[in-house]
Specification:
This protein is an alpha+beta fold. The chain is 23% helix and 28% strand. The protein contains seven helices and 20 strands. The protein is globular. Pfam families: tRNA_Me_trans, tRNA_Me_trans_C, tRNA_Me_trans_M.
């Protein structure tokens, strides 16, 4: 097959590209330039997509003997991921930019261009497994290494996208094995630290980054009864479940800590309350996609597991379609779930699909 290997400059995509070559595929490497500031270097950065990352990717491509290109997707990334991230926070929601990047850049923009150029598949260094299902279509499954499993952030992929995806690391038992293989191949990235946090906020200061773009307007922090218990410097930087940095002037009657229960941008208000008020007993979303065919029986409800964060434990649940919404009820409440997060459904190790959470119902809702 003709394979386009997406090479971030990290160790995972380097080894994935090398394995694709060894499997006999005709591989071409490509690094996506996602940062509009082309002068960015890695020094002090915690993300990815720097000039040094592009150079690291090129060195690996040279070492394994494949053609290599840099494609400028910075405008598309800014519009589809960065602008979406800002808009979601401005609306009081908590987005997942890595999931959006996979959905709209790596497996939409990149895959569309790859297919148009005659490539059969896009290869990435994600830790996930593709299997052939009973209907002959591809299924997305968890990786062998549970600690590195990235099926959650790939939960947005459709059947058509899975048909053109390749994840050579999915069955690898650990990241240590990948690093050892990279070292044996002579890759300089063998010991390169993993990127983390939001890649376009390299210093990790999400609150400051948002404030610079959305401004900071002081407002009220209120309890579940609407009584003002403090002031904030800008509601958009707060997230559901947050405990620290609330600047409360009035303690709770029982003296226990308070947590953010809701962010209301329209009134510039942050609602706080006790930890038990974070317990979500139902979530629903209209922006739903399926990793293959939609499961049978959704109108009546299906048994599944739901995962709401990349490294959260899955929770047994039931899911059903109601008036265009996917409504999910976990058997045990989920703490601190915010609108904007993605709820990915599983059946065992298989990813069924996902929905972006539009609303939640709590056991003890805020007023």
């Amino acid at each position: 097959m003709r394979v386009l290997a997406a090479m971030s400059g990290g160790v995972d995509s380097a080894v994935a590209a090398a394995r694709a070559v060894e499997a006999g595929h005709d591989v071409t490497g490509v690094h996506l330039a996602l940062n509009r500031n082309a002068g960015t270097l890695r020094e002090g950065a915690r993300g990815c997509c720097t000039i040094e990352d592009a150079l690291d990717a090129r060195r690996v491509a040279d070492a394994i003997g494949i053609p290599f290109y840099v494609w400028d997707f910075s405008d598309r990334f800014a519009e589809e991921v960065v602008d979406d991230f800002v808009a979601e926070y401005a609306a009081g929601r908590t987005p997942n930019p890595c999931l959006r990047c996979n959905e709209r850049i790596k497996f939409a923009a990149l895959l569309d261009r790859a297919v148009a150029l005659g490539f059969d598949a896009v290869c990435t260094g994600h830790y996930a497994v593709l299997r052939i299902g009973a209907d002959g279509g591809r299924e997305l499954h968890r990786a062998s290494d549970e600690a590195k499993d990235q099926s959650y952030v790939l939960g947005v992929l459709t059947a058509e996208q899975l048909a053109h995806a390749m994840f050579p690391l999915g069955e690898t038992p650990s990241k240590a094995v990948v690093r050892a293989e990279a070292a044996a191949r002579g890759f300089r990235v063998a010991a390169k630290p993993d990127s983390h946090d939001v890649c376009f906020i390299p210093d990790g200061d999400t609150r400051g980054w948002l404030a610079a773009r959305l401004g900071e307007e002081p407002g009220a922090v209120v309890d579940e009864d609407g009584v003002e218990v403090g002031r904030h410097g800008g509601a958009v930087a707060y997230t559901v479940g947050q405990r620290r940095g609330l600047s409360l002037s009035r303690p709770a009657p029982d003296g226990r800590p308070r947590f953010v229960l809701e962010v209301k941008p329209a009134s510039n208000t942050v609602v706080v309350g006790p930890k038990e008020a974070l317990a979500v007993v139902e979530l629903a979303g209209a922006r739903t996609s399926w990793a293959g065919s939609a499961p049978d029986g959704l109108e009546d409800g299906i048994a599944c597991e739901v995962q709401v964060r990349a490294h959260a434990d899955p929770v047994p649940a039931t899911a059903r379609l109601v008036g265009g919404e996917l409504v999910v009820r976990p058997t045990d409440p989920i703490a601190g779930l915010a609108p904007g997060q993605s709820a990915v459904l599983y059946a065992g190790t298989r990813v069924l699909g996902q929905t972006t959470v539009d609303r939640t119902a709590r056991a003890s809702p805020a007023a």
